[in-house]
Amino acid sequence: MANSYTTRNGRTAKRGAFLNSVWHCDCEPRMPADKFQVKNGGKNHGRWFYTCQKPQHKRCKFFLWNDDAKVREEAAVLSNSRTEPNVPAPVTPQKKDLPALPPTPQTRRDKKEPANDKHDESFDWSSSNDEELLMVEQDMLEKAPFQTPKKVPRTESLTSPGKRNFMQTTEQTGVADETWPLSDDVFSTPSATHESRGSGLLSPSSTPARRATGYALPEPEPSTLASEALSILSGSRLSLEVERELVDLLNRHDLRTQGIIKGRDITRLAVQAKDRKITELQARISALEAEKETNKRVIAHLKQDIAASPKKGKGRSTHRGQQAEA
Questions:
Q1: How far apart are CA 158 and CA 138, in angstroms?
Q2: What are the backbone dihedrals phi and psi of residue 141, each rounded to the nearest 5 degrees, phi first?
Q3: Whole-angstrom Cα distance, residue 181 to residue 194?
Q4: Alpha helices in the chain (DSSP H)
Q5: Which of 90, 253, 283, 300 has its CA 20 to 30 A from that of 313?
Q6: Contact between 18 and 74 (Cβ < 8 Å)
Q7: Which residue from 17, 32, 156, 27 is spatially nearest to 92, judged by alpha carbons?
């Protein structure tokens, strides 16, 4: 499909213009073009095309298949641009020069041959494409409004990304201006030293954090070891920081000692439980061995009885036989 058409003066110009990644028609000024799909059941059924967004009686003769549009879009991308290079804007010098210049031969020819103008300004395609375009326009008029998800928005320029609400601006400013001052207090929490310089309203949770004085957490009570060490060093002048570090160190050692003591007690209890279990198992073993010896004796006695019983039966049968003979 050709990408140009012939005008009245014999010159050729491309159909439409690819400006800022959006296709525009040949109107003056150019307007974003609409994108539709052919649904007439013909040989071009399912193909997409661009056309003017104005009503049918006011639209220009812009018509461009999507396949041809992709070729021109690729050319623009290869030139590292979002706009098609060397796009001539539609110029109508007749309207500008009409008050000052006499009628041009083109104007006179328009009056004499109105029937041939439509033929001269037609696009460079076959008559079958004209019939298909007519059928497509009829389908579009019957199916109104159009429900195409790929319709180009009717905007002269791209959407500005600078529209943001006040809350988003406040949140971004607040996040950028937050500072976390350093502090030598190891027991303080971040909420006690965190300050926000954002332009938004202050939250209720930040008010007590600013008014809080001293430590955010209560000082741990000194252990017995720490108390004894402080009583020994009571005559010396120690700074609060050194005293705090000393108490913290002694508390850690005291906790470690308490853990060792508890572990020792638990180990002792476990050993005692194992000893009791061993004693129970040994007693059970002794009982099973005694039962085994008893069973052996019973079995031996039964074997003796079985061995002696046939002899007694044989003697009785012999005595009965002698009595019968007598």
A1: 31
A2: -70, -35
A3: 7
A4: 66-78, 93-97, 105-112, 114-120, 127-142, 166-177, 190-193, 206-211, 224-232, 240-325
A5: 300
A6: no
A7: 27
Decide if 244 contacts 215 (C-beta within 8 A): no
DSSP code of residue 195: B
User: Which tokens in the block code for residue 241?
Assistant: 């920081």
Neighbours of 225 (CB within 10 A): 15
Residue 165 near residue 42 (C-beta atoms within 8 A): no
Of 54, 64, 149, 52, which is closest to residue 73 (Cα–Cα)?
64
For 133-192, what is each residue's pLDDT tens digit? 667 666 666 655 545 555 555 554 455 555 555 555 555 544 444 444 444 554 555 554
- The residue type found at 11 is R
Tens-digit pLDDT profile for residues 203-213: 554 444 444 44
Cβ within 8 Å of residue 53, ≥6 positions away: 25, 31, 32, 33, 34, 59, 154
Identify whether the C-beta of residue 69 lies closer than 8 Å to the C-beta of residue 169: no
pTM of the model: 0.27
> Residue 36: in which H helix or E strand, if any?
strand 34-37
Give me the residue label for tokens 């949140």. 171
Tokens of 268: 């002792």
Nearest Cα neighbor of 206 from 219, 215, 197 is 197
Contacts of 14 (CB under 8 A, 6+ apart): 3, 4, 72, 84, 87, 88
C-alpha–C-alpha distance, residues 131 and 126, integer Å: 9
